[in-house]
Amino acid sequence: MSLAACGGDDDGGAAASPDGGGTSTTGNPSTNPGSSGDSGTDPGSDPNSGPSCTSAGESLAPGVSAKTISVGGSNRTYQLYVPSTFDGKKTYPLIFAFHGDGGDGTGLRKSFKIEAETKEGAIIVYPDGLNKTWDCDTTAGLARDTAFIDAVVAELTKNACADAARVYATGFSRGAYFVNQMVCRSKSTWRAIATHSGGGPWGIEGTEYDAQGQLKCNAKQLAALQVQGLADTTVPPSEGQKARDFWRAADGCQSATEAYDPSPCQQYKGCAKPEVYCAIPGMQHTIWASAAPVTWNFFTSQK
Question: Which segments carry the region annotation Disordered (predicted)?
Answer without folding.
Answer: 1-60
